[in-house]
Amino acid sequence: MTPIVAAGYEACEADTRRWAHNFGLGIRLLPPTRRRALSAVYWFSQRADQAVDSDGTREEKEQRLEALRGALEQSVTGEPPDPRWAALAHATDRFEIPPELYRQLLDGGASDLDPRTFEDWEAVLGYCYSVASVVGLIALRIFGGSGRESAAAAEEIGYALQLTNILRDVRDDAGNGRWYLPLEESDRFGVTAAAVAQGRAESGFDALVHSVTERTRRYYSAGPRLYRRLPRSTRACPAALVGVYRGLLERIAADPKSTLRGEVRLAGTSKLRSGLGSAAAAMFS
């Protein structure tokens, strides 16, 4: 490892400690080489999110995404523009990560540049794949997993994580013109994006949240199928992440209207209990 790559990994790990409020616990449970690699991937995924979610005009956001695309192509062809990119390139080579997965993640971010809705679950899950499952497929390489069944489980966990995010952020997203729940589902329960954006709970809101929650639980059930196909040394990381997010989902299920009040979060002790409990179970599965 060159000094530039080492410095890049150190910087990515520092960024991860600063940004990864829900992911951080799991990442810390990995062996050092894999922890550094996943930190570089997490740094990249956050840069992709920030390119779209940070303030600015649509043109400015497009420019930020294009800058990331350019830096990515430089990196995967052996000319990374700075140490963090050098670390990502090193991790990509070491764990044989297909660069196309990074490109798909950027494409997913670009799809959020404009207000959008989704007609059905197929469209919603396609979106979840592009912004979450692809990260799971990248992480799968770092965890030492392989094979079709492992990939399918990683994809389903990605759906679950993103659906949890969608429920948590439903009011803010609706206020920004983004309605990520399928219209066929929200129409069935008589819930509108306009009301949610105003923080109003229509009569079917709780039922809608419970319906989405039940589907999300089914995707989380892919966790054990993944863990048992991983080396024992890496199982704790994805299990802790799933434990934390599953705890968040159950908090939403217990009080659906908390999503309208912006009060969905886990206290530090609850996060540790959920994450470490899930990690311990996965280690001995």
Q: Which features characterize this protein?
A:
285 residues, globular, 16 helices, 2 strands, Farnesyl Diphosphate Synthase
Structure description:
- It is a single chain.
- With 285 residues, the protein is an all-alpha fold.
- It folds into 2 domains: 1-98, Farnesyl Diphosphate Synthase (Orthogonal Bundle), CATH 1.10.600.10; 115-285, Orthogonal Bundle (Farnesyl Diphosphate Synthase).
- 73% of the residues lie in helices and 3% in strands.
- A two-stranded parallel ribbon has the order 1-2.
- Helix 4 runs antiparallel to helix 6 (99-110).
- It is globular.
Helix content: over 70%
The helix/strand class is mainly alpha
Largest sheet: 2 strands, parallel
Query: What portion of the residues fall into strands of 2 or more residues?
Result: under 5%
Please mark out the parts with pLDDT under 50 across 5 or more consecutive residues, or reply none.
Answer: none
Whole-number total of structural domains = 2
Mean pLDDT: 91
| Continuous helix count | 16
Rg, alpha carbons: 19 Å
> How would you name the oligomeric state of the polypeptide chains in this document?
single chain
Order of helices and strands: HHHHHHEHHHEHHHHHHH
Enter the CATH topology name of the largest domain. Answer: Farnesyl Diphosphate Synthase
Q: Report the end-to-end length measured between terminal Cα atoms.
A: 35 Å
Q: How many distinct beta strands?
A: 2
CATH class of the largest domain: Mainly Alpha
